[in-house]
Amino acid sequence: xxxxxxxxxxxxxxxxxxxxxxxxxxxxxxxxxxxxxxxxxxxxxxxxxxxxxxxxxxxxxxxxxxxxxxxxxxxxxxxxxxxxxxxxxxxxxxxxxxxxxxxxxxxxxxxxxxxxxxxxxxxxxxxxxxxxxxxxxxxxxxxxxxxxxxxxxxxxxxxxxxxxxxxxxxxxxxxxxxxxxxxxxxxxxxxxxxxxxxxxxxxxx
Length: 205
Known about the structure:
The chain is 41% helix and 13% strand. The chain has helices spanning 8-17, 25-36, 40-56, 73-76, 91-100, 127-135, 150-163, 188-196, and strands at 58-59, 66-67, 81-88, 105-109, 141-144, 169-172, 199-200.
């Protein structure tokens, strides 16, 4: 039985909130009713921040991390080790690795992993720009920090084949993360150790 709403505006707001990942209609209703209880200034600030995020946020020209400027704070930081790049699937992974405080190099955000089942090929990812960075000659080590899934391993191997002749050291996180786990669900201590204890990647697991 469909829920009947006393207001078309209420229903539209619920419909929009329920499009967010992990938000069902009951949670959407709770969130919308919460906003209705707030004063206009609070709701306008909330809505304005989302609109500004969508319209004004940038992606780093170097590593493709989310940024307020053309080059992100990590890439622009002279204290970071610019000779080491950690390759991750998404922006969330950068935040997770940063929280370990065990990595002082730079990042490269692929924007996903190779997944033929989902129609995602190498050309859909930021792999070519990674090859260009490695080809410049300033990179000594590339750390592959993708999830230990079939798609992650396929992407690792593809990158390995692209970089193996450039003379760059290729490493992979120590397998303290269970097969199939993503970085998001790994505790900081385990992830930190897997970064410190990373091993040379030779194209095989």
